[in-house]
Amino acid sequence: MILALKNFRTYHLAVEFYQACKPLKLSPSLKDQLTRASESIVLTLAEGSAKPTAKDRARFYSIALGSFRECQCILSLNGQTEFLLRFDRLGGCLYKLARALRLASQLPVPSSQGQAPATGNRSARNLKFTRHFLPGPFFPPEKHSVYRRLGGSRKIFR
User: Fold this and answer.
1) Between these two residues, 24 and 111, which has the higher pLDDT value?
2) Residue 153 forms part of a structural domain
3) pLDDT tens digits for 104-148?
4) Which end of the chain has fewer CB atoms < 10 Å from its terminal CB, N or C?
5) What is the dihedral of CA 98, 136, 140, 88, to 10 degrees?
6) What is the DSSP letter of 118?
7) Per the domain annotation, does 41 fall within a domain?
8) Are 8 and 138 in contact (CB under 8 A)?
9) Is 79 left (phi over 0), alpha (psi -120 to 50) or beta?
10) Domain count of the chain?
């Protein structure tokens, strides 16, 4: 196991999804497409987690979400609704990762004079959260102390 991905919950869900897709009975063309798309989710998450900026990570996580949507479409065409419901959480995690990082990449960088920049409708307190939470996507948000102090993601990304 790659040490940097050890605590990356979405990555583990994607690996579980990939392994669950392998034994499914589908037509050869759909089976090949599902295998490639589910592999793409895992590989794109791993590559995106190593990117240095939130904007780069958000782009890779959005690509992984697109691959997951492709898998959902293939499974729904084949009538695998219970399988879709089983891995609905993976889609939610991918969406939240892409959205949170996309919003964070739109925030202005704090000035070097120590003053909080004008952030529109986002407060300086939310900017502080974003700066401390987003350097690496490896910590589940609910276990992060800054996340708990601010009361959860609803306050932060509205």
Assistant:
1) 24
2) no
3) 777 665 554 555 555 555 544 444 444 444 445 444 555 544 444
4) N
5) 30
6) P
7) yes
8) yes
9) left
10) 1
